[in-house]
Amino acid sequence: MASSSGNDDDLTIPRAAINKMIKETLPSVRVANDARELVVNCCTEFIHLISSEANEICNKSEKKTISPEHVIQGSTATSRTSAGASSQAGSSQDEEEEDDL
Questions:
Q1: Is the pLDDT of residue 2 over 50?
Q2: 20/27 Cα distance (integer angstroms)
């Protein structure tokens, strides 16, 4: 039985699943443990972000259960936000590179 002791392991994707995904996706590449941990953290953050967006959409539509459509809409909203943030980050990085010249 899972306890709610605030353990972060209860809130992450199983490391074995990530290891399997990496091995299947990149069979001839060795991946450092730090990189594997970073992938776990990124996946966990992504799931939290999408589920939060889906929950907000679900609440706005006055539903009690998150449906696949809520998840898709949450993913779309997150993609737009991420794309905007990425383009802003890329823009500022370009400016820094120009300053270095």
A1: no
A2: 10
pLDDT tens by residue, 5-60? 455 556 788 999 999 999 999 999 999 999 999 999 999 999 999 999 999 999 99
Dmax (CA) of the chain = 59
How far apart (Å, rounded) are the C-alpha atoms in residues 72 and 47? 12
| Cβ neighbours, 10 Å, residue 57 | 20
For residue 74, how many other CB atoms are within 10 A of its CB? 21
In the numeric block, the tokens 């449906």 are attached to: 67
Question: Is 20 in contact with 39 (CB distance < 8 Å)?
Answer: no
Q: Which domains does the chain have, with CATH numbers?
A: 14-100 (1.10.20.10)
Residues 6 or more apart in contact with residue 57 via CB below 8 angstroms: 70, 73, 74, 77
* Other C-beta atoms lying within 10 Å of the C-beta of residue 62: 6
- Distance CA(35)–CA(12), nearest Å, equals 15
